[in-house]
Amino acid sequence: MTETNAIRVLIADDFKVLRDVIRLHLERAGDMDVVDEVPDLNDALERIRTLRPDVVIMNDYLPPVDSAHATARFREQGFTTAILIISMHLEPGPIQRSLLSGANGFMHKDEIDEYLVDAIRRVHQGERYLSPKAGNAHSSIQE
User: Fold this and answer.
1) C-alpha to C-alpha distance for 119 and 12, rounded to whole angstroms
2) Do 41 and 63 contact (CB within 8 A), yes or no?
3) CA 70, CA 61: separation in Å to the nearest integer?
4) To the nearest 10°, the Cα dihedral for 75, 141, 92, 46?
5) Which end of the chain, C or N, has fewer beta carbons within 10 A?
6) Are strands 61-62 and 65-66 parallel, antiparallel or unpaired?
7) Alpha carbon of 125 to those of 43, 55, 99, 143: distances in Å?
8) Running DSSP on this structure, what letter comes out for residue 45?
9) Residues 94, 27: Cα–Cα separation, whole Å
10) What is the pLDDT along the chain (143 residues), one digit of tens a residue?
C-alpha cells in the first residue's frame, strides 16, 4: 500500500524471520506501509532520519543495546516517531525503563498475531499501549 494516509512503519529487529512475519501482518492490515527493515541500532537511526516513519516496531534488544537505551538515543536526537517495543521477556523493570525512555508501547512477541496491528494504530494515534501480557507484568511493579 502506498496511500498518503497509510501508517509508515519501520521494523527494527535482528531476526529476519520475525521481520518477515511482522511485514506479512502489516501488509494484510491494509492501512500500513513497511518503509524498511533494519537489524541494528545504527541502521534504525539512519532510516528514521531519512525515511521519517510514523511508527518503529523495535525488538527489546537492538544490537548493540537494549530498547530503553535505543529509545533514549532516538529521543535525544529529536525523533518523535512512535516506538512500539516487542519482546520475548516480560520482566517489569525493562518494560518500565523502556516506557520511561520514551517508548509508546510494549508487547510480548507471542501476542503479535492478535494485537500487533491494533497496537500500531493506537501508538500512531498518540496512545500508550501495553499488550495484555505486558500490562500484567507492568502492573506488578505498581502494586
Assistant:
1) 16
2) yes
3) 8
4) 0
5) C
6) antiparallel
7) 25, 10, 17, 28
8) H
9) 30
10) 455 689 999 999 999 999 999 999 999 999 999 999 999 999 999 999 999 999 999 999 988 999 899 999 999 999 999 999 999 999 888 899 999 999 999 999 999 999 999 999 999 999 999 999 999 988 876 54
8-state DSSP, 109: G
Q: In sequence order, which ranges of the chain are alpha helices (DSSP H)?
A: 16-29, 41-51, 67-76, 92-100, 112-124, 132-142
Quote the pTM value.
0.93
Q: Which residue has the cell 525503563?
A: 97
Going from the C-alpha of 63 to that of each of 8, 60, 99, 130, the distances in angstroms are 23, 10, 19, 23
Residue 24 is which amino acid? L
Chain Cα centroid distance, residue 49: 16
